[in-house]
Specification:
With 195 residues, the chain is mostly beta strands. 10% of the residues lie in helices and 29% in strands. Strands 1, 2, 3, 5, 6, 7, 9, 11 and 12 form a nine-stranded mixed β-sheet that branches. A hairpin with a 2-residue loop joins strand 5 and strand 6.
């Protein structure tokens, strides 16, 4: 039986939306820790806002080595000042090396309330922030992708269990997973083979 193209494409579009939001079925290379809150369509609506310009296929390096272990997923706020989780938490222990996900220039390095914060400007539009992090880097220093930029510390909502990665594009927070995971590729619909 041959299905209309719309019936075949709709599930693919739904899957792409789930993957872009950081929710959906397990993805190879991405581990969500047991007990971590899971996203739902209401908690994590379709991403809105700008997207940083990246070379095709260019992915950022996970800030904590090894496979991604997301202990706190991205949850977009309902409006600019609403509650949400404007980044992802990656399982880490104090003293663990933190590496630069992408090359850039340090735009902030210091303490905010009770935690060390490091922000790196990737381009004119994109900045990522890592916290809690102890870093000896100074504003204006160039950072290479994959270079050690500091070590996991404690403080903020991560306490001593994670490193938070937040990404802003043109001042708006976006889901960092869009830079850390391969995007799905849609292939043209082929003809059904006779069986």
């Amino acid at each position: 039986m041959v299905l209309p193209r719309t019936l075949l494409i709709a599930p693919l579009l739904a899957m792409i939306t789930l993957l872009a939001n950081g929710s959906g079925p397990p993805i190879p290379g991405l581990a969500v820790q047991p007990g971590a809150p899971q996203n739902s369509a209401q908690q994590n609506p379709a991403p809105q806002g700008p997207v940083a310009t990246l070379a095709p296929g260019a992915l950022w390096v996970p800030p904590i080595g090894g496979p991604l272990e997301v202990s706190g997923p991205y949850r977009a706020p309902p409006h600019r000042y609403g509650s949400g989780h404007r980044g992802i938490d990656l399982a880490a222990r104090p003293g663990e090396a933190v590496i630069a996900p992408a090359a850039g220039t340090v735009s902030f390095s210091g303490t905010v309330v009770d935690r060390g914060v490091l922000s790196i400007r990737v381009d004119d539009r994109t900045v990522y922030t890592l916290e809690p992090v102890r870093s000896a880097l100074s504003v204006g220093e160039a950072v290479a992708s994959g270079a050690v930029v500091g070590e996991a510390a404690s403080g903020g909502h991560c306490l001593a269990e994670c490193v938070h990665l937040g990404v802003r594009v043109e001042g708006e927070y976006v889901n960092p997973l869009r830079y850390l995971l391969q995007r799905p590729v849609l292939l043209p619909l082929g003809r059904a083979e006779a069986g």
